[in-house]
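User: Fold this; tokens only.

Assistant: Input:
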Amino acid sequence: MRRTILAIAMILAPTVLAADDKPADKPKSDPEGTPLELTITGKANYPHDLIGFASSAEYKEAIDAVAKGKKKLPRPPFVDLAVEFKNTSDKPVKVWGKGDPVVLTLNLKGKGAVNIDPALAFTQEFRLPEAVEIAPGKSHKIELTSLTSGHRMASHYSYWTEPGEHELVATLKTGVSPAPKGANVGMDGFGLVTLTSAPFKLTVEEKK
């Protein structure tokens, strides 16, 4: 029976993450040679929605205050995007598509970009991974409606707080069968891998 006890270990001080590291310019995998390629697709232009704040400075100040435990976190921007992992081999592969071992994390870079792990609590039951089979050359898609990601797609928030050019990078931790060479083997013989996308360019425009 699944338990619904709050995971005390998840109730931590929020963490604001730096967004100024230079991203990779092409998809990569760990271990190298994993027959999957991660990409971000979708709409690239968005209005700078301040969601009720008077200015960009006030918007960013509200997010920064969360790190000090002073305010409720504003909702992340809405987006119309998808993260796709493509089978680049000539044979079918099975990939974990959801479940607790599957963690998709988004990292936004650009002027005024903020990435934060807020203080949250999650139920303690372990959600088993569920696999999808992907034919050669085909992809599996995860739809994104906001810049919310992380554990159960709810533990990591990304924000643009100013208009301008931004880059979004996705990192996916999942399992693949057959296990790629060099991968640690997890449940049911699936190899544990980490996929990273090339940067996806976003333009945030001053709202008219």
